[in-house]
Give the backbone structure.
Amino acid sequence: MSNSYGSNLQLDVMQHERTYNERGCPPQVGRRTRHIGGVALNLENPLRGISLEHLMTDVEVFARERGLMHILDDLKKGALLAQDHQAYKRYNYYTDEDIRYLEDEVHHKWSQTGALYYVVIMSSLAAAIQGMDETVINGAQLLYPKQFGIDSLSSGPSRDSWLLGVVNSAPYLCCAIFSCWLTHPMNQWLGRKMTIFVCCLISFVTCIWSAFTGSWWHLFIARFFLGVGIGPKSATVPVYAAECSPAPIRGALVMMWQMWTAFGIFLGTVVGLAFYYVPDSGGIIGLNWRLMLAAAGLPGLIVCLQAPFAPESPRWLISKGRYEDAFNELCRLRFARVQAARDLYYIHVLLEAENEMKKGRNRVVEMFTIPRNRNAALASWIVMFAQQFCGVNVIAYYSSNIFSQSGFSDSTALAASLGFGALNWLFALPAVFTIDTFGRRNLLLTTFPCMAICLMITGSAFWIPSRDGRLAGVTIGMYLFTIFYSPGEGPVPFVYSAEAFPLYIRDIGMSFATATTWFWNFTLSITWPTMSNAFTPQGAFGWYAAWCMILWVLILLYVRETKGKTLEELDQVFAIPAKIHAAYGVRQITYGIKKYLLFQNPPRVDLYEMAAENEKSDAKREDAGNPVQ
């Protein structure tokens, strides 16, 4: 039976080494440091290497200053676990219940509290709102342009086609130039869950507002303000889910954002098909498309009803000095008090380190002036830009029009769009497993050429004179494109951007990455109607197929692999000069040609060896330029 310990117990510094043979757990190693922009940072765990007496003294000071002396025993046990997650194997201070819950974190990681699953459900619904907000316009645009006199399909590349693009893209214009930059102040003032509440309330109100509009400019204004609900929510929900989650399932829950956004896209196409045949009633003209736009607000109302009862982010509460409230919320999110105490103390230590890093530093400037940060920003920009210019949102927002142009009736076009939505969701599921095994960069390099081929098939199908052949070609091309997009470029950008930046600029880096994707989303949405009419569908799809190949080259040269990397390894990866990584990408092409086309057995290309060789050659040049006197 394990013993509990009191706050006055003197801990033996060497006990962990003496119990090594008993518990089969090696002693701790010393703490290492890394440097970013001239600042030394602790690697992986700021507590590692601190002596036990020092650690216990720090915990007592922390508890006294924060008014937490009544949970000092829990905090001491938690601090040991924060320093080393296997501390319960070294010390006899943990109860059998503590040990059971700590081991369940590893062996039964999906066994979590009801409060955590409440957070998961709320976050999933918020993600579904995001997708639904984006795609209800897909079905509505078959109807409202005729009523508002901006039917671009009959007017050619003119004012009407631009106005259709302006109305459809209004939320993303708002996200890019305004609402994404509200994320930080809203989170600072309101907290995570209240930011989500406000954003979902705005989404609900603006969706209802959109249903009552009577002109294109009125609909544009309503949809522009819809962007206020979309932008901050897209950055806040993944962070909120991550901050509430235990480490073993944190990455999977961040992935849930994209998966349930894809489900919302599917749901939006279902709504479009469901309301298409609703007749006008009670003197209301265009009741069908009005119901489509209004329906997107209902999930937002559900999240608004959920949010007041959800836990607040413990990290946000700690950042505001509300330690007692943070501990109480962690007790809701974890099974055992020792888990809550561990996470409370560790979050506190990390926030202290983060605040120290920020002092006297212009983080916006350093994101671009420090090579390690600049390389991360470049890679994040490429994957976020690629998420739009691969052409996926042409299909998400305009698939009904595209299918209609190919010869489908409006109702059949909506049914075909439903297939796109379903495939987008279903094929996002494999990414949960492949993103950490096959790798982010490998997924992108494998899927982009396939997406380019699929877009060429789709565009070329418009030349088929037979109606049935044309319909088959367009449908097959778009569906295959979706199958390759969903496990690759769909989930990778947000996951990649969230991990690429170092801690001290991560919030700014994510705002930059999110604004990037929404700006190019707006650009694609506003230009497609005119581009499709001016270039014809064949030329327009060819344009994005060409971009897929250009993006493949950019990913090969400048996007680094991040799967399975520690904090130290990520710094090493992004610290490698861009020219070295570009040369590595070029060598990978020649390696692939020799191995898979010429059936030779060339030596593998190693990025780190290339970087080491570059450092040696630079050192030699410096020595040659500075001869010994």
About this structure: The CA atoms of residues 160 and 208 lie 25 Å apart. The chain has a mean pLDDT of 85.
